[in-house]
Hints:
Elements: H1 3-19, H2 24-34, H3 39-60, H4 62-71, H5 92-97, E1 111-114, E2 124-127, H6 129-144, E3 154-158, H7 161-165, H8 169-177, E4 180-184, H9 190-203, E5 207-210, H10 212-224, E6 236-239, H11 246-256, E7 260-266, E8 270-275, E9 281-283, E10 288-293, E11 306-312, E12 320-332, E13 344-351, E14 355-357, E15 363-365, H12 367-374, E16 379-388, E17 391-398, H13 404-419, E18 424-429, E19 444-446
Parallel strand pairs: 3-4, 3-5, 5-6, 6-7, 16-19, 17-18
Antiparallel strand pairs: 1-2, 7-8, 8-9, 10-11, 11-12, 12-13, 14-15, 16-17
Amino acid sequence: MSLYTSFCSAVIFPLHEALKKHSTVKVRRDMEQSQWLNRDEIRLLQLKKLKAFLADVQSHVPYYKNLFGQTGFDPEAIDNLEQLADLPLLAKSEIRAHLADMKADDAVGLSRFNTGGSSGEPLIFYIGNLRVSHDVAAKWRATRWWGVDIGDPEAVIWGSPIELGAQDKIRLLRDKLLRTHLIPAFEMSPEKLDGFIRQIQRIRPKMLFGYPSALAHIASHAEKNGIALDNLGIKVAFVTSERLYDHQREKIESVFACPVANGYGGRDAGFIAHQCPQGGMHITAEDVIVEIVDAQGRVLPAGELGEIVVTHLATRDFPFIRYRTGDMGILSDKICACGRGLPLLDEIQGRTTDFVVARDGTVLHGLALIYVLRDLEGVDAFKIIQDSLDKTTVQIVRTDCYQASIAEEKIVGEFKKRLGAAVNIGIEYTDFIAKERSGKFRYVISHVSP
């Protein structure tokens, strides 16, 4: 670690957080101790925090004060984490309907946030200093797992209009001091990609951070044009906000000559989990309780696929309790080789809308269709849209070596094998496939509920 990085990590960033009245430094130090607790000790810590959190929420948040009264729920009576399931699940529609009553009556300095709205309708919510401190601390801890720290040169390849619109003068000064370089990657034309590559070469970052689709796209463009990026000294590429596919990981690791560290979370649900160098996807268990539920909302055991539901214990100013993320995943009951007692997510399989439904009702992961297109020569980019049980549309950006008759026969035949012989498969050719409004790219979008 360089002297300047040490100065940033020990002085500049802590001063920045103190001025903002954030307890980030203490929280991170505590987390770096508690991560080594064993699984039972962590569950006891969660139970203690959960009881205090729910009692606080009952006293200060009108929505939950009414809910607990109506259901007879008593936070003081909780003696195990499984009793959390006695509370109803929290959907985005419920937050929209009760936005004012979701705020604590003694909350100070709440900041208004919203999700990018990949479901079509952005969610407005609020975050207080406690929540910010804990989420930043959790990300900071995970960053340090990889031998890098705040103050090391970082290239942030991002495409969300929300972050890009927030680059005021103070943030720009902070980023300059901390050597964080924001590269707006909402547009991915060949000319823009050339510019991104030149910026990365100039910065020579120790770490990359961004959407996996954006980093993989830059890596593919560099490889296609014979541009070497394996000599920059990059130590790790952090990816988040989208599902990380194996082919993306392989491309990023090959071109940038560094490991890829997957992170999972969001503006709404918080910093949920992060991968360690030994491969474990560790849940931020000091702050986050993760449940996996089926379509009826019943809690599933480890090893079974269901929707990821999150309770964030540092959200007392605007609580997220049993919040439905819309993402699908599997909990693991294994212990990671790194020795941390933090529980593990075995798989994160994307949003519920990343799954498709066959004509006979069989639910398939989008990968069942993605691999058909990935193996075709001349397909530069694609998107699959399941409009209904009877119709699926494929958008394709072609290259010169694309053979339409062969490709179309393959796509229609393979898709019908998976979705049903009677399903209409439409193929549309385009010069460009737009990202979502959030800046993310999604290979599969289904309008059919699994």
